[in-house]
Structure formats: C-alpha cells, structure tokens
Amino acid sequence: MRQTCNSDGGVGSTENVKARGITIFSIFVDTPTAAPNPETKLLADFKKDTHLSKVYLAGREYLNEEGQTSVSPLIGKIMQQICTDPTLCPEYPSSVGLPEFTRRATELVLGRDCHAIVENRVLGVQTVGCTGAVRLGAELLKHWYNVRGVWCGPVYLSSPCDDSLAGIFEAAGIQDVRRYRYWDTEQRGVCVQKMMEDLEMAPEQSVIVLSASAHCPTGSDLSQKHWRLLTQLMVRCRFFPFFLLPAQGLCHGDFEQDAWPVRLCASLGMELLCAQSFSHSFGLYGERVGHLLCVLKQSSTLLAVQSQAEKQVRALWSRPSVGGARVVATVLSNPAHHVEWQEGVKSMVERGILVRERLREKLRLLGCPGSWDHLIQQGGLYCCTGLNVQQVEFLEKRRHIYLHPNGCLNVSAINSRNLDYVAESIHLALTSVF
Amino acid sequence: MSLFGEVPQATPVAVFKLSNDFKEDANPKKVNLGVGAYRTDEGQPWVLPVVKKVEKIIVADNSLNHEYLAILGLPEFRSSASKIALGEDSPAIQENRVGAVQCLGGTGALKMGAEFLRRWYNGNDNTKTPVYVSAPTWENHNAVFANAGFEDIRPYKYWDAEKRGLDLDGFLGDLESAPKHSIFVLHACAHNPTGTDPTHVEWMQVAEVMKRRKLFVFFDSAYQGFASGCLDKDAWAVRYFVTQGFEMFCAQSFSKNFGLYNERVGNLTIVARDSDNLKRVLSQMEKIVRVTWSNPPSQGARLVAITLNTPELFAEWKDNVKSMADRVLLMRASLQAKLQALETPGTWDHITQQIGMFSFTGLNPKQVEYMIKERSIYLMASGRINMCGLTTKNIDYVAESIHETVVNVQ
C-alpha cells in the first residue's frame, strides 16, 4: 500500500501522522519482497498438507528410524558435564575459535601425521557451520588470492550443488560463478568425462569447489581413480581446490575414506581450503559447529594468513559460539569418547545403506523401469533418484511425498513405516508421468 | 609458489595486543584495565547465577532438540529481545511494525544491518552512501561497514578532549552538514570508548536534526542495563527515537548484560513504518543470513529467551545486571574519591559522570605509556580504562599510579 509524502517530506511522529491524516513514505518502500527460499516454501507446503501418508524427504537433517533428529546419550552426557563444569570461562573465544576444537577438526580431516600439519602450514578456523566456513573461505579468496592482481573468480560449482553456494560467493564479492557438469541424469551418476572437459576450459587460478564425499544433493561421488585424474588436471591447470566436507564419516562409515580426496591433494603439496561441518555427525545442527581448514604451501605464510582470517571473522561475526565446539572437542580429544562416537556414526551409515538396499529391492519387485543400482552406489545423506521435474511434482501433488525439485531426497527420512509407500509412489511416478 | 605467499600480516588489534602484553608481564601488582568484559571484585569473569540456573533447565529439558533454528532465529528470542530494547508496551510493537533478526552477537547484528543497507537503502547497491561513526568509536564499526561494501565511512565529532565531555556543537554540526540519507551509527548508552552519553535534551536535539535531514538511525546497543543498572533508563534514547516516528535499526548484544560472551547472542531490531514494509525487509534479511551463517546458533538465544519470558528469572536477571552495574558505579566513585584525596592535578568529575564499562581518563599517550611501563597498569593508548578491571584490592595502587603519572609526565 503506497503512502504519500507530507509537504515538508519529513518523518512525523505516529500521533502527528494520525492526527493530521498525512501518510509518509517508508524508507524501505523500494525494498522488494525476496523470492521465498525454496526449501522454506516446500516445508511450509508440507506442513499445510493434511494427507495422512505425507512424507517429507527434502530436509537437511539426519533422521533416525523414528523420524526424529537425536543426539547420542554420550553427547547428552557431555553437555551435562560442560554445563556443570565450574572451570569453564564465559569469556570471548579468539576469533579463530577454540584451539582444541580446531586442532581436532584439522586432524580429523588430514590425519594426525599429515606432513602439512607436522610442517606447521595448516590453519584451522572455527566457523558458524559449513555455510560460515564457505563464506569465510570465499572472503579470504576474494581479498587475498593473488595479492598482486585483482582476483574476482571464477569459482566453479558442480551442477547440481547446494542451492545456497552460489549466493555465498556472490555475497563475498565474487560475481563470476560458473558450473561444471557433474550429475548425469541418464547415467544416474557422475559424468566424469564432461566434468573434466568443462574444467579443462577453465582459466588458470580458477577455484574449483569439490565435494570430498557424500555429494550434496546427489550422493554420487568420484572414484579414487577419478580423483587422481582430477588432481593431476588441477595441478597442471593451477586450479585451487575448495573442498566441501559437511558429513565426514557419514558416507562410508570411515573417516579416512571420506576425507581421502582432501588428503590426496595435501599429500601432493597442494594448497587448499576445506569447509567442514559437525552438524550431521554429532546431531548438533542448531549449535552451528563448522570449521574452515586452510592448507598452505609454506609455513612462513601461516601467521599472516591467520591474521587476515581473524580480520575477516571480526567483520563477519567477530567470534564463533563455543557451546557446540566444546562438545565436539571433548569427544574428539578423548579416545574412549572418540571410539564411541565413531561407532554411533557407523550405525547411522549402516541404517542408511539398509534403507537404500531395501528401497532398491522394493523398486525392483514392483518392476520399476530403469536401473536403481545408483541408489546403493551413492553414499551419505542424499540420493538423487533421477526423477524429472514433472515426476517430482506428481509425487508432491498426488502422493504427498516431498522431494527437492531436482529429484534428490534425504535417505534418512525413509523408514520402515513409509518405505513401501515411497517405493510405490516412485513406481507410479515413473510409469504414469514422462 | 604459494598463492598466499604475499599476504601481509594484518595490523594487530590494539586491545588484544594489550591483553597479551599484560599476560606476559611478571609484575605481581599488574592490573589489566584494557579488558572488554566484566570482572568481579576478585578479578574473575562472572557467570550470572540466573544463567547457571537456566543452563541446567535447558540441559534437563528432553523436549528440546538440536535442530536448525529458523534462518531469522528463535522467534521467542527475537520478540522478547526487541521488547527489552523498545519497551514491553511500545506502540511500534503493538502496531506490528517491529521485527528482528537473531544474529551472532552485536557484531553479527551490525553486519546484517550493514549488508541490508548497502543492498537496499538509498538506492540499490549504493556503496557510496556515507556511513558516520563517532570520533572515537569501537574500532570494529569501521571494519563491519567497510566489509559490507560501504566506501565512505566518516567520523562525526563526538568527544571533546579539552572539555572531557560531549562535543555537542560539533556533533550537531556534522549532522547538519552530512549528505541527506547518510547513515549514523549511534551508541544507545554507555558510549564505547568514552563513557560519555548525550543527555536527554541533547538526544532530542540530535533527533530533531536527523529527522529534518532524513538521516538513517542505526543504534548500537551493547550495554543495556549495564550502564545505569536499569534497563528502561538505558533504553531511553532508542525509545525516544521510536516515539519520534523514526524507522531504524538497533543492533543489540547480550554478551555483556548476560555474560554470554562466547555464545554470541545478538539481535537486530528493525522498526519500520508498517507491517508491510517490515515483511519485505525481513524477507531480504533472510536471504542475507542464508549466505552468511545460514541459521544462527541456538544455545545462547534459548537461554536468553527463557530468562526474558519467565517472570521470576527475568527479575533475577535484572538483579544480576544491577549488581554488575553497581560494582562499576562503586569503582567509579572510589577512584574519583581517591584521586581527589590525593589531590591529583586536574578535575576528575568525568570519572563519575561517565557511564558504563569504560572511562576516558584523559591521560595522554605519554602518560599511558608510563602507566604501562613503569606501573604495569595496562590501558588503551586513548586513555580508555575498563572500570571492571578495578577491584577493592587494586584501586589504591591504580589511584596512586594515576597520581604519580599525572604529576611526573606531561
């Protein structure tokens, strides 16, 4: 509802305004409504849906067999301990976060005896979740990648990728964001050749955003053989790898294996960034426990880069919040806790594998067209079904099953109560919609 | 060849360097008056009793989960935090034109506000809109606005070093000469670093000019409750501007008044002309949050929300805050009394006239250096001291040191 300016164009008090019957422009009058976040809208539609069998498969959190998020008893116990610990200090943490946390997060990805760590050329920064890590990495690159020239991209993202990624780089001032082909709908897997083709065409010093494991949103990863080929290309073309590792351990149930591509690059002496999250592996989503790893070529640059990272953090959020990071650090520094936690992650993975296998089997029994091997070849939280936009819409509107528009879904949201219905619905979608 | 090979060392932040030097000083009498946090009379950080209580409540509550908060944050936190700033019965709240974004501390709130303003205020992506910060101000103000893309960040006159008080004429003069639509960052109370706030009458004069010249009001409220011991008193300026019909932002921090420094609890309160404008602003804020930290952290906000929304806990919190403010007031009175008793040259009324955590002593850089080197008393080069660093045990030593410094060093 447009409002008109009063004669002196001034901003009057509310009472004056009413009394004089004058209305005034808002200074925000030209701010348009932002397009709703697609995820928010999808969830809102699901909540309004009254159908009894409705299933939401587009969430970002790991759900257990009961369809709930949860933390393990171990985590619960540790939170209690922390809460009653009189030695803990309510002080500002450093801008780069809790040292014990960054140390353990770094070791988890690279392995304790990684040369880069031993040679003191690794910087770890605690961040506000994985988003915070990507944002900080983007800001660092924007400001400091190639001091001599003005670097403003390009940054290459996989197609598809998490829908907030492009915006994060743009917000950091990097406008030149491009895509490399990644998911092949027909093959239902990674189109490695096309990916390499696209990257061969990229200019030198491009930053390539890569999923270390459990690619979001497709769940499809490169094989180790292909990682070797890719890293050779990156070295040859002088690309800078920016890894995403939001769920280490949740792909193969093996922390080393899930971080293997990062370790490979580090072992080749490459510089890299790696954005990590502990949301899924600890069930601590709200606490926003993230980490940005930076591997440098020379230890002589470490302090300078750290000082610049601190400076960036101060302009973003000043310091991270400690609660969740304390829990993670406590678990990772205690061998017994560490083992118990890893076992917990493994059982999450086992459940995910079981769901995938049962879904594939059910689709096979229903005579569902196409191959569904990709379901069990993929790993982690997400899975790309290969359903097209119309089929996804069919699932939503006619079967009340909510997937991402790109046909990807959260595997953990499938359980013994809804598996049959989901499988039947997918079958129906494939056989009645083209 | 490292791509980061030529990255220069960033200039160290003065207050952190000061803390480091303090740590390494072996003098048993050393005093740290540069610290930016509350300390008890034992020189220790203080977990507020109400905070301990609420933490236990949260940990014991099995119905609470660890899921992502909504992008804009915990609703009950946002609304109760805004009420703290604007008053429970604020007409703006009743008219549904107040909204908020839960942020990472006061810094996060400033950041979100700055990012929004750069994108949508005074045109689209107008990086040339001047941003005015007080001279002096909290040094991070500059960095936050610069990082959000603003190219023109200027000081407005504020502290009169000779008078040791507010340079009202200078302040009003800068308001008059600022280009229209310029953004002004105002300290809601307990100005950092000077401890000098405008009086009510002076605030009214500021508001009159800002209204006439269509300047944007961006309050930074990091010390509500901490300054006078009374939440409502400390919010007078913010609330006055609301009654004057301003649309504005108020960046709130709960770090100091809840002692939750490390949980990063902040809130950006938005006052718009009406709910329609508010809605559109919030929709854009969501987009900005999504590409910065995606969702804010849950623990601190939950704690604050439970406290503010539970009458007994709210009362207890207000008591806790008052006790912190009272200790500061006591130290101010003691320091001034001791300096007067020592007949230290100069006037020292400003120590008790200033308000909040900080005091601009008026010591010059040479005197500050003397204090640090000869007396192991650490304060900022500007002469700023944190009153919380004073205790009944060290105040005599500090007073004597100031006396000796002023007498021997000019």
UniProtKB/TrEMBL annotation, chain A:
Belongs to the class-I pyridoxal-phosphate-dependent aminotransferase family. Residues 61-426 form the Aminotransferase class I/classII large domain. CDD domains: AAT_like (cd00609). The lineage of its organism: Eukaryota, Metazoa, Chordata, Craniata, Vertebrata. This is aspartate transaminase. Its EC number is 2.6.1.1. GO terms for cellular component: cytosol. Its cofactor is pyridoxal 5'-phosphate. GO terms for biological process: aspartate biosynthetic process. Homodimer. Transmembrane segments: none annotated. GO terms for molecular function: L-aspartate:2-oxoglutarate aminotransferase activity; pyridoxal phosphate binding. Gene3D superfamilies: Aspartate Aminotransferase, domain 1, Type I PLP-dependent aspartate aminotransferase-like (Major domain). The gene is got1l1. Keywords: Aminotransferase, Pyridoxal phosphate, Transferase.
TrEMBL record, chain B:
Residues 29-402 form the Aminotransferase class I/classII large domain. It comes from the Eukaryota. It catalyses: L-cysteine + 2-oxoglutarate = 2-oxo-3-sulfanylpropanoate + L-glutamate; L-aspartate + 2-oxoglutarate = oxaloacetate + L-glutamate; 3-sulfino-L-alanine + 2-oxoglutarate = 3-sulfinopyruvate + L-glutamate; (2S)-2-aminobutanoate + 2-oxoglutarate = 2-oxobutanoate + L-glutamate. Its EC number is 2.6.1.1. SUPFAM superfamilies: PLP-dependent transferases. Its main location: cytoplasm. Its cofactor is pyridoxal 5'-phosphate. One of its GO terms (cellular component) is cytosol. Pfam families: Aminotran_1_2 (PF00155). PROSITE patterns: AA_TRANSFER_CLASS_1. It is an enzyme of class 2 (transferase). It is found in: Cytoplasm. Keywords: Amino-acid biosynthesis, Aminotransferase, Cytoplasm, Pyridoxal phosphate, Transferase. In eukaryotes there are cytoplasmic, mitochondrial and chloroplastic isozymes. Belongs to the class-I pyridoxal-phosphate-dependent aminotransferase family. Homodimer. This is Aspartate aminotransferase.
